[in-house]
From TrEMBL:
<keyword id="KW-0479">Metal-binding</keyword>
<dbReference type="GO" id="GO:0032259">
    <property type="term" value="P:methylation"/>
</dbReference>
<keyword id="KW-0489">Methyltransferase</keyword>
<dbReference type="GO" id="GO:0140954">
    <property type="term" value="F:histone H3K36 dimethyltransferase activity"/>
</dbReference>
<keyword id="KW-0156">Chromatin regulator</keyword>
<dbReference type="GO" id="GO:0005694">
    <property type="term" value="C:chromosome"/>
</dbReference>
<feature type="domain" description="Pre-SET">
    <location>
        <begin position="95"/>
        <end position="158"/>
    </location>
</feature>
<dbReference type="InterPro" id="IPR001214">
    <property type="entry name" value="SET_dom"/>
</dbReference>
<dbReference type="GO" id="GO:0005634">
    <property type="term" value="C:nucleus"/>
</dbReference>
<dbReference type="GO" id="GO:0008270">
    <property type="term" value="F:zinc ion binding"/>
</dbReference>
<feature type="domain" description="SET">
    <location>
        <begin position="161"/>
        <end position="285"/>
    </location>
</feature>
<dbReference type="InterPro" id="IPR003616">
    <property type="entry name" value="Post-SET_dom"/>
</dbReference>
<dbReference type="InterPro" id="IPR050973">
    <property type="entry name" value="H3K9_Histone-Lys_N-MTase"/>
</dbReference>
<dbReference type="InterPro" id="IPR046341">
    <property type="entry name" value="SET_dom_sf"/>
</dbReference>
<keyword id="KW-0158">Chromosome</keyword>
<keyword id="KW-0862">Zinc</keyword>
<dbReference type="InterPro" id="IPR007728">
    <property type="entry name" value="Pre-SET_dom"/>
</dbReference>
Length: 336
């Protein structure tokens, strides 16, 4: 019931803020990903050439020449329910619009009560420079009566650009584009298991400093200090978003986008024009400072938690972002 109240407030408030997103990745992840001769792996090209969304114009996800991705992780284009969560990401809970004979427009379409989300070129409108969105983003869903070609259907169309997984010098695997991507265009999702808070802490407590952490926490401020919090982990079940590295000057922004239910798609949009062969990256911290108590700071100063950042940006903070609330056995805050 509380989740329902928060959902209604988010829909009606017109305020959505990405408060913090935290993920750390080891310098290498050779224990999870291995290099092989592409020609020696039966069926490898077919396995790598998956479309993000079957039935839509997708893109080829391939490894750089001479490299192949042999993952332990199971591929999924969408979120799946993981341990500890009380929501099913695949459940359809939003009603559809009734725009059968007219285009979806603000004022008439229930999905656009806060205004349009995309322009005629499928570019996100009001893309914030600090990773914020001026309003919640809701796309038309499977129950909507509008066309599949409705302008308010972007993230659900899946990948539209050719991307490539490649081996970086110090950051393990990375993801780059083989095509020009205009500012504001949707690039990919960060999909995986949607977890409960206790399961997040359990998994993180089992990690060592050498282990990569793919868990991301999205906090959306709703009303009167209440927060909707979503945890996603693509370590075991996930999509190509798990290959994205951090940058202190990223070319992607993560925006929560809702389509069929209150569980948001963690959609990554181009924060600027991106050139071919350019590595794709986003800021793991969501560009918000993380507050730490004295004990956390002491542990950080001794280098027991934080990992070095190799993004190479002029404004590089030297270390990857860190959220102490996920690593320390704290009492769960008043969060839905």
């Amino acid at each position: 019931r509380r989740k329902g109240r928060l959902a209604e407030e988010l829909v009606n408030s017109g305020h959505c803020e990405l408060a913090a997103s935290v993920r750390q990745k080891a310098e290498t992840s050779s224990h999870r990903l291995h290099l092989h001769d592409l020609s020696q792996v039966p069926g490898c090209p077919e396995r790598l050439s998956r479309k993000q969304k079957p039935g839509y114009v997708g893109t080829v996800l391939e490894a750089a020449a001479g490299e192949v991705i042999a993952e332990e992780a199971q591929y999924t284009p969408d979120h799946v329910a993981g341990p500890g969560t009380d929501v099913d990401p695949t459940q359809i809970t939003f009603p559809g619009c009734i725009c059968l004979k007219t285009p979806c427009l603000p004022g008439t379409c229930s999905c656009l009560r806060h205004g349009e989300n995309y322009d005629d070129n499928s570019c996100l409108i009001d893309i914030g420079s600090e990773g914020k969105c001026a309003k919640p983003v809701f796309e038309c869903n499977v129950l909507c009566q509008c066309s599949d070609h409705c302008r308010n259907r972007v993230v659900q169309q899946g990948l539209q650009f050719q991307l490539q997984v490649f081996k970086t010098d110090k950051k393990g695997w990375g993801l780059r584009t083989l095509e020009f991507i205009p500012k504001g265009r949707f690039v990919c999702e960060y999909a995986g298991e949607v977890l409960g808070y206790s399961e997040v802490q359990r998994r993180i407590q089992l990690q060592t400093i050498q282990d990569p952490n793919y868990i991301i926490a999205i906090r959306e401020h709703v009303y009167n200090g209440q927060v909707i919090e979503t945890f996603v982990d693509p370590s075991c079940i996930g999509n190509i978003g798990r290959f994205l590295n951090h940058s202190c000057e990223p070319n992607l922004l993560m925006i929560p986008v809702r389509i069929d239910s209150m569980v948001p798609k963690l959609a990554l949009f181009a924060a600027k024009d991106i050139l071919p062969e350019e590595e794709l990256s986003y800021d793991y911290s969501g560009r918000f400072l993380n507050l730490m108590d004295s004990e956390d700071k002491e542990r950080l100063d001794h280098g027991k938690i934080r990992k070095c950042c190799y993004c190479g940006a002029k404004s590089c903070a030297a270390f990857l972002p860190y959220d102490s609330s996920l690593y320390c056995p704290l009492e769960k805050p008043n969060i839905s």
